């Protein structure tokens, strides 16, 4: 007796598709059985998923936990109505016949096929690395966009566009040596602008003293000027002062693409785009991350617009603060959509904050049990991201609290006043009586 077994090859299938596994065989013997196996763990484990017994003309499934997802269309065919990622892998069809010479001997042959199950990405997002981050008008800085694509199998093709045009980027195969070193040294280009440097700092630079201005703090003169109590309120100023290192030239982009397997069989892909930020031309620039995948009929994309913060909206609760209240000053939003996430810094104009600190980071400033001395104090909120900075101010008005008794000085003064009034009245009555 002879027996040949073959399985028709399958093209890649997408999660949710119906798949039919066909086992073709030729023989001149009498069939004994057909058994389908799913091979796992690199071939070390064979899980029996379907059996056809020709002797009793019966068939049954060993995949009860799959709720009998396979249907025997023919004796040599198994159908999977809705494939899953877990169905990915090799399958084997084993056929047994009786030998024509002796009915007690069984001849076996098998064939195999690999089921490649693809899954389209389920999510895509674009975010900025190292956020929130400050704005600097004195030092060029790198900026990195990160595109995260999850749920795909196999790994998708990820690329960036700017204002709808594909970006030609230099690949970066090696991971960064440390934080903040996403690009080579020549990515940073500094050309100091002496017109923005105070004379004292410029003199230090000429003499080789102190730190280079590229890493210096903002001039103390500017900080002192901003702390003046004569500032108008409310005030919103979007910084637009940039030194000469900002050039009206096309930036050089650097690109890195990595992917990591996930336990469910999918792949998480991460693509990064790094360049020297130019706030003059990058503000309001539209960047999109697009994904091509064999399981997608058209590219999948997510986009962001780089925008500096403008017009912070500040609320204060309670609206009429009284002595002893806890006051919360909160930034609720902006007049525009801001990306990336801003960094918020609170300061008190001309003095320190209530807790004695010079500044407070965060979207909310909390003043616990405000005293009467804070009445009229002005608070500045600086919101900034790598594209720009904006300041806004609010003044705290503290009213008297009738539930809190006055201090000992007020009480003594009040009693002294009453006693003085009674003494004058008594002396007046005595003089009148004597004259009478």
Automatic annotation (TrEMBL):
Q: Which InterPro entries match?
A: Ig-like_dom, Ig-like_dom_sf, Ig-like_fold, Ig_sub, Ig_V-set, Nectin/Nectin-like
**SMART domains documented for this protein:** IG (SM00409)
The Ig-like domain sits at 16-109, 312-397
The record ties this protein, via SUPFAM superfamilies, to:
Immunoglobulin
* Compartments reported by the entry: Postsynaptic cell membrane
Keyword Signal in annotation: yes
Primary localization class, coarse: membrane
State a single Pfam family of this protein.
V-set
In the bilayer, the protein is annotated as: Lipid-anchor; GPI-anchor
GO biological process assignments: heterophilic cell-cell adhesion via plasma membrane cell adhesion molecules; homophilic cell adhesion via plasma membrane adhesion molecules
Q: What does this protein do?
A: Involved in synaptic inhibition in the brain. Selectively regulates inhibitory presynaptic differentiation through interacting with presynaptic NRXN2.
* Record note on quaternary structure: Interacts (Ig-like 1 domain) with NRXN2 (via Laminin G-like 1 domain) in a trans-interaction manner.
User: Can you name this protein?
Assistant: Immunoglobulin superfamily member 21
- Source organism of this protein record: Campylorhamphus procurvoides
**Lineage of this protein's species?**
Eukaryota, Metazoa, Chordata, Craniata, Vertebrata
């Amino acid at each position: 007796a002879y027996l040949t077994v073959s399985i028709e090859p399958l093209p890649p299938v997408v999660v949710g598709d119906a798949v039919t596994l066909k086992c073709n065989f030729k023989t001149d013997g009498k069939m004994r059985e057909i058994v389908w196996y799913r091979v796992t763990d690199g071939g070390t484990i064979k899980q029996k998923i379907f059996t056809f017994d020709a002797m009793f003309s019966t068939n049954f499934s060993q995949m009860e936990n799959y709720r009998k997802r396979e249907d025997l269309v023919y004796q040599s065919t198994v159908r999977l109505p809705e494939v899953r990622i877990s169905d990915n892998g090799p399958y084997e069809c084993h056929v047994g016949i009786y030998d024509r010479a002796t009915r007690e001997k069984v001849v076996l042959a098998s064939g195999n096929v690999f089921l490649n199950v693809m899954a389209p990405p389920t999510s895509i997002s674009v975010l900025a690395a190292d956020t929130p981050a400050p704005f600097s008008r004195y030092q060029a800085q790198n900026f990195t966009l990160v595109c995260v694509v999850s749920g795909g199998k196999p790994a998708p093709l990820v690329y960036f566009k700017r204002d709808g045009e594909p970006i030609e980027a230099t690949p970066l195969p090696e991971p960064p040596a440390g934080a903040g070193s996403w690009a080579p040294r020549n990515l940073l280009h500094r050309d100091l602008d002496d017109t923005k440097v105070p004379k004292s700092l410029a003199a230090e630079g000429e003499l080789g003293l102190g730190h280079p201005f590229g890493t210096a703090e903002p001039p103390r003169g500017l900080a002192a000027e901003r702390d003046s109590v004569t500032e108008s309120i409310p005030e919103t100023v979007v910084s637009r002062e940039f030194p000469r290192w900002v050039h009206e030239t096309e930036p050089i982009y650097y690109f890195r693409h990595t992917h990591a397997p996930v336990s469910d069989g999918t792949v998480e892909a991460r693509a990064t785009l790094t360049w020297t930020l130019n706030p003059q031309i990058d503000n309001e620039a539209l960047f999109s991350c697009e994904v091509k995948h064999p399981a997608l009929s058209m590219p999948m994309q997510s986009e962001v617009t780089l925008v500096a913060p403008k017009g912070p909206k500040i609320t204060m609760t309670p609206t009429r603060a009284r002595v002893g209240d806890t006051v919360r000053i909160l930034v609720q939003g902006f007049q525009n959509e801001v990306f990336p996430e801003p960094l918020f810094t609170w300061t008190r104009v001309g003095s320190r904050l209530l807790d004695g600190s010079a500044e407070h980071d965060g979207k909310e400033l909390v003043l616990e049990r405000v005293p009467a001395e804070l009445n009229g104090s002005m608070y500045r909120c600086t919101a900034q991201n790598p594209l720009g900075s904006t300041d806004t101010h609010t003044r705290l008005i503290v009213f008297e609290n009738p539930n809190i008794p006055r201090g000992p000085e007020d009480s003594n003064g009040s009693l002294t006043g009453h006693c003085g009034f009674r003494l004058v009245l008594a002396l007046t009555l005595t003089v009148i009586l004597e004259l009478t």
